[in-house]
């Protein structure tokens, strides 16, 4: 098991290297530079800026310098937020995004799973249809429609919750963003759980469990759900990586200082180091969560073994 | 070959193909059929609607900024007088008497200076009046009668923050969104199918390398990719869907590769190989047509995904540029004006959501219809 994990982590290194290389050069080929303003800076100022940020060197030299600093765990200074290094920005924003993502993930798993199981147990009845219709709504309504509606109703008309802002991580400030972030995930998880649960309820081992006269709870939760949760886990792996690294839309609408916003800002302002840093962080999360998914498989499904 | 065909003159009974079966099963699926009807309705509305609509999609009515959706015509009765007074004030005319008869304003005006014929333009320029005339000049030309027709207009979906008709804009946005959805999907499907079949059919090292490339592209954050492509191509409508399509082909390539792996072991492919058909011919004639089932299903699910992606890009300000518009642009504008002008969000969202709903149901229906397990 340990050897498998180590092997997987080692094989991630070339992937990460390739990702860094591709995005580095893609970013640099894009027209425009970080210091292109509407009114151009003076030539001398520009020259000095370029010297400070090593932009006067050849692309290859810059690439090697960047690789070296990433290897030592330093993502370099930000071009756009002049007073901050990328590490400082991430240290502030990543925990915020991760809290939101984790909250949304838990909500999705608990509520989505619950409704999925209920729908599967009442297949083709009223409950099933209403859950599935609600789920389709959840998938099709984009969250930048849901977010303003929720803020308007809960925040402005009824005044129960703050409309936006982080508020130093106060619980009330987290409710709206987490719920908005979780809604589409709840819908997808409910659909997936329903599908696999229906199959699991028909399988032989559940029939055997029924024949033993086990209680409904034991049959559903212990025997059927364990197998039925596998597709959900497969889906939630990449989804978790995406959720934990922040959502641009949610963070923009609710004014939350998370990592998701940096991505778009960075790419539009050609903040090379910021974009590269985000790419690396996201890629690490994706790789890590794919590994976690595979390990969870071994825990949930006794047929899967890593030797 | 021709010898065998001479004997049976009467047409042989036609076999039922996979597609015939699928069609019948799809027809039996009520949700899917309704969805197809809804989708066709929205498509037709988007295509011919803007031509029939009474307003241009980029026509600005400065007197009707953010007016609510209504079946009644604008201007409202109580809107006419203030509008007339304010124009008259701008023209330095004092209104002595004022009355509205049958959608026609008649007012006696006086002025300290001589009244100029050209003052009619000030009235005509306003969106509320037309055919303004100044008649019955007095001796010293310092008083006269102004008559003007009230120009009645309908804004069934209201207007936006610039005073443009939301109905026309929603329909023209539908054109853009559906086009992007369809074309981007076609681009994604073409790349994905060709990539997947080649990778699956040739196998071995080719397959290994090609799939490795897909894996790496998978771990690249997808927003980064789209933003980079948009930055490269500029905010160009045509190139944007190519960019979106170029990002979305990865899933398709994987699905098609899996299909190809099983198809290439079939007897008819081996027979074709034995007869010396070239690889390109086998791919074109035997493999690609047989992967189409899952491709079609995936396509109906990809179109809503692309439309959503386009709205997301528009939300970030990277999408279609003004005065052109798309559902995403309208929705993000509507979200910003939700408190004062909810109709700006409601109508585009309604269209977008029902389209996505319909496409999802069609996708689910097709998947059930094409599922060989359901025979």
Core attributes:
heterodimer; A: 307 residues; mainly alpha; globular; B: 375 residues; alpha+beta; MetI-like fold; Gyrase A, domain 2; 2 domains; 4-stranded antiparallel beta sheet; two-stranded antiparallel sheet; 13 helices; 6 strands; 63% helix; elongated
Largest interface comes to: A-B, 39 and 32 residues
Structural class of chain B: alpha+beta
Average per-residue pLDDT of chain A, rounded, comes to: 84
* CATH hierarchy class name of the largest domain in chain B: Mainly Alpha
SS field, number of helical segments of chain B: 13
Instruction: Count the DSSP helices of chain A.
Output: 13
Our measurement of the CA-to-CA distance between the termini of chain B, rounded to an integer number of angstroms, reads: 35 Å
Helix content of chain B: 55-70%
Global Rg of chain B: 31 Å
Average pLDDT metric of chain B? 80
The total of beta strands of chain B comes to 6
Radius of gyration of chain A: 24 Å
The oligomeric state of the chains shown is heterodimer
């Amino acid at each position: 098991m340990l050897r498998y994990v180590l092997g997987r982590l080692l094989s991630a290194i070339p992937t990460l290297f390739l990702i860094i290389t591709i995005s580095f050069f893609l970013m640099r080929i894009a027209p425009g530079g970080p210091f292109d303003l509407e009114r151009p800076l003076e030539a001398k100022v520009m020259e000095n800026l370029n010297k400070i940020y090593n932009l006067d060197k050849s692309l290859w030299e810059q690439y090697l310098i960047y690789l070296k600093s990433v290897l030592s765990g330093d993502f370099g200074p930000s071009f756009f937020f002049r007073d901050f290094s990328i590490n400082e920005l991430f240290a502030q924003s990543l925990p915020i995004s991760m809290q939101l993502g984790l909250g949304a993930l838990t909500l999705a798993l608990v509520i989505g799973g619950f409704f999925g199981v209920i729908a599967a147990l009442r297949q083709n009845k009223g409950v099933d249809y209403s859950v599935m219709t609600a789920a389709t709504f959840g998938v099709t309504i984009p969250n930048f429609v849901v977010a303003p509606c929720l803020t308007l109703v809960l925040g402005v008309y009824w005044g129960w919750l703050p409309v936006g802002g982080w508020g130093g991580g106060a619980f009330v400030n987290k409710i709206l963003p987490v719920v908005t972030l979780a809604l589409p995930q709840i819908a997808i998880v409910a659909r997936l759980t329903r599908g696999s649960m229906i199959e699991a309820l028909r399988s032989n081992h559940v029939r055997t469990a029924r024949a033993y006269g086990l209680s409904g709870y034991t049959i559903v939760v212990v025997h059927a759900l364990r197998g039925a949760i596998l597709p959900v886990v497969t889906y939630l792996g990449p989804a978790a990586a995406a959720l934990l690294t922040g959502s641009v839309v949610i963070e923009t609408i609710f004014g939350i200082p998370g990592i998701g916003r940096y991505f778009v800002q960075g790419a539009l302002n050609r903040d090379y180091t910021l974009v590269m840093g985000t790419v690396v962080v996201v890629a690490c999360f994706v790789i890590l969560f794919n590994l976690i998914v595979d390990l969870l498989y071994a825990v949930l499904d006794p047929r899967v073994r890593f030797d | 070959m021709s010898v065998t065909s001479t004997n049976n003159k009467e047409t042989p009974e036609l076999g039922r193909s996979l597609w015939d079966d699928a069609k019948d099963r799809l027809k039996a699926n009520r949700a899917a059929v309704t969805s197809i009807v809804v989708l066709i309705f929205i498509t037709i509305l988007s295509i011919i609607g803007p031509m029939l609509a009474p307003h241009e999609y980029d026509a600005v009515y400065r007197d009707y900024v953010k007016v609510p959706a209504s079946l009644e015509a604008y201007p409202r009765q109580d809107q006419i007088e203030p509008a007339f007074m304010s124009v008259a004030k701008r023209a330095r005319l004092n209104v002595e008497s004022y009355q509205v008869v049958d959608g026609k304003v008649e007012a006696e005006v006086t002025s300290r200076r001589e009244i100029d014929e050209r003052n009619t333009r000030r009235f005509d320029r306003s969106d509320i009046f037309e055919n303004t005339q100044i008649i019955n000049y007095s001796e010293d030309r310092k008083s006269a009668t102004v008559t003007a027709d009230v120009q009645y207009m309908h804004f069934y979906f209201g207007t936006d923050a610039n005073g443009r008709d939301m109905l026309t804009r929603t329909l023209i946005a539908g054109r853009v969104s559906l086009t992007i959805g369809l074309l981007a999907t076609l681009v994604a499907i073409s790349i994905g199918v060709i990539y997947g079949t080649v990778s699956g059919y040739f196998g071995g090292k080719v397959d290994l390398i090609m799939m490795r490339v897909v894996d790496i592209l998978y771990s690249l954050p997808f927003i980064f990719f789209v933003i980079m492509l948009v930055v490269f191509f500029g905010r160009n409508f045509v190139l944007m869907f190519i960019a979106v399509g170029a990002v979305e082909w990865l899933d398709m390539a994987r699905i098609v590769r899996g299909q190809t792996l099983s198809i290439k072991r079939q007897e008819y492919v081996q027979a074709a190989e034995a007869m010396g058909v070239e690889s390109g011919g086998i791919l074109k004639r035997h493999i690609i047509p047989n992967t189409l089932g899952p491709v079609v299903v995936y396509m109906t699910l990809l179109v809503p995904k692309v439309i959503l992606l386009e709205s997301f890009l528009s939300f970030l300000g990277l999408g279609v540029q003004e005065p052109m518009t798309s559902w995403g642009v309208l929705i993000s504008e509507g979200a910003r004006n939700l408190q004062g002008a909810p109709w700006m969000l409601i109508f585009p969202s309604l269209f977008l959501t029902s389209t996505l709903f319909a496409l999802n149901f069609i996708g689910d229906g097709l998947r059930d219809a094409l599922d060989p397990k359901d025979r």
